[in-house]
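Severity: low
Component: inverse-folding endpoint
Summary: output formatting inconsistent between runs
Steps to reproduce: submit the following structure tokens with default settings.
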């Protein structure tokens, strides 16, 4: 039986991030992808021009429609925009007892545009993170969640432990913003062990949608039955190849190549 993954996130008209990136990633993994759109953005490689949040009843109807008919093996959340949407998603996870929840706490676009209201941050911390199996903040997002600066690898390790204490089973803090030389290190903490995922830092401006893609790759792995650490390591390989072969489209930050390694055994 084909595995099923649901993305609950915003739509990126440029196709590089949001549900578009998630669905492409699910396909690359051989997982059937479904979506519940929370917001529509007018967006390209340069920035976000407009955002329209969808009504709560429409978001709820999408989630219910998918779950009650097709079923869901994993869920990835992305842009949730406001506290009411966050609360609705948290309620849906509890109502349907959904498993394999990957939360990408999307707050800021690659261009620097804000994608999450200030009031929604606390709701994510208190209502959504405790339900997650994996969370994948980058350094700026981890700083917002913890309300402190993260300047060193040791800071990242402590941040992962602190986020785990009030949230999920596994925390992945992405280290792209601390990359030095040719190396980039992500920190993974599961409540017991701290793992450093080392990778080559790829110098390119075409990194639009990397966070969405990485999180949805983890969700796809979990849907296929991978253990969290295996899903994370596999997703790391996938996103690294997607960045290495990124597409030079548009005038700003081009998208990663979601079809990289399409024939690989993800």
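Observed output (run 2 of 3):
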């Amino acid at each position: 039986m084909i595995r099923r993954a649901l993305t609950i996130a915003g739509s990126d008209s440029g196709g590089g991030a949001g549900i578009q990136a998630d669905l492409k990633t699910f396909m690359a993994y051989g997982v059937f992808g479904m979506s519940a759109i929370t917001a529509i953005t007018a967006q390209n490689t340069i920035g976000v021009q407009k955002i329209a949040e969808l009504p709560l009843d429409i978001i709820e109807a999408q989630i219910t429609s998918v779950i009650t008919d097709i079923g869901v093996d994993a869920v990835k959340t992305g842009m949730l925009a406001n506290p009411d949407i966050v609360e609705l998603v948290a309620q849906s996870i509890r109502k349907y007892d959904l498993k394999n929840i990957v939360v990408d706490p999307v707050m800021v676009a690659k261009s620097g545009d804000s994608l999450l209201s200030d009031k929604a941050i606390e709701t994510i911390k208190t209502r959504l993170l405790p339900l997650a199996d994996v969370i994948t903040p980058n350094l700026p997002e981890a700083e917002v969640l913890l309300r402190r600066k993260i300047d060193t690898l040791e800071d990242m390790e402590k941040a992962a432990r602190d986020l785990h204490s009030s949230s999920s089973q596994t925390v992945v803090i992405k280290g792209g913003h601390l990359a030095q030389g040719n190396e980039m290190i992500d920190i993974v903490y599961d409540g017991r062990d701290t793992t450093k995922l080392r990778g080559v830092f790829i110098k390119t401006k075409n990194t639009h949608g990397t966070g969405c893609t990485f999180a949805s790759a983890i969700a796809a792995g979990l849907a296929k039955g991978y253990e969290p650490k295996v899903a994370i390591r596999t997703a790391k390989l996938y996103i690294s190849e997607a960045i290495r072969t990124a597409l030079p489209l548009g005038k700003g930050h081009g998208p990663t190549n979601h079809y990289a390694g399409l024939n690989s055994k993800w």
